């Protein structure tokens, strides 16, 4: 590893947000998973939570998750378990979910410790996860089709979170614990 | 067609933005094309311009474009031709392109007549299109990977355009010419 490369890893680590997370609740198409993970890296998500689908897609999801490198992934049995884990770490859980109680995504304060929950491609956020989330957020739509692609919806909301966190200076000083810094640097430097 | 369905089509048409367009300059993966078109529908793009790749992907792109319904598509030989066509209709051409001259995407006024140009999955915006565009815009990135998925980048910028246009009331009154309204309604009602 060149000194420059090591500097680059450290600089990126110094921008990682331990209190901004994503829960993929049953998302199963590999290209969507890849796009979500790539966006997580770009906005500084340290850790991604995946509730694995309970069907044939399970192994595909595992493979798709295994091939990525810059975001730590934790697997969960289902959405509820992932939500409980997020809340235990002090995060508010926002479900990206068009419901009666949903608020427009730009009205939320993403500088608060936050996990964004995404639903599956076909059926969206299921009733159990919707009930377990703290709030629902939606992205207004002006057209005929009634939802965005899931990786697109994730990106629109995470881009707003990123903008708010930039404005608040949350990328300007390292926010990781010593253990988080050390463990993640080790993983990145020794793949 | 039920009266309710017809009302829905008219209401959506009344939100269409004839002066907000997208140029896909060589984008060729079907799932990316599908996601871009879906996002275009959701933010009210009336017309999408596709510069077809000059290789084996050409037919795949044609097929992917043919299967969508709510956004009018114009095909072009290359990016330059698409840019010329956009400019002829009075649109500023913004290339989503990370260059020395690029400005952060949130600093741009998207209530102006605008076409957003997107580059290919592998090599991005080529030199000719970059030179022909009026401005370059970029989305800040905090991670290790050096670009977003193209449909994700499109969505992040178009969501900002949508937000600005909502705030400016551009979705509150019909903005189509009589001919645009008539022709598009005919196409939508008689697929
Ligand atoms: C393709 S959508 C699911 C569509 C499903 N038919 C439904 O009714 O929920 C996949 C996921 O993307 C997210 N999503 C898509 N469009 C959204 C929007 N306009 N607002 C908030 N989240 C959205 C949600 O997390 C959703 O579960
Ligand atoms: C996967 S990227 C192309 C990456 C290519 N290696 C390059 O260097 O340009 C595909 C397209 O998405 C858009 N894009 C991706 N990330 C972007 C960003 N951070 N800012 C602006 N546009 C971006 C651009 O239009 C780009 O041409």
UniProtKB/TrEMBL annotation, chains A, B:
It is an enzyme of class 2 (transferase). Keywords: Methyltransferase, RNA-binding, S-adenosyl-L-methionine, Transferase, tRNA processing, tRNA-binding. It comes from the Bacteria. The keyword S-adenosyl-L-methionine applies. Its EC number is 2.1.1.34. GO terms for molecular function: tRNA (guanine(18)-2'-O)-methyltransferase activity; tRNA binding. S-adenosyl-L-methionine binds at residue 139. GO terms for biological process: tRNA guanine ribose methylation. Belongs to the class IV-like SAM-binding methyltransferase superfamily. RNA methyltransferase TrmH family. Catalyzes the 2'-O methylation of guanosine at position 18 in tRNA. This is tRNA (guanosine(18)-2'-O)-methyltransferase. The chain holds residues 1 to 191 of 233 of the full protein.
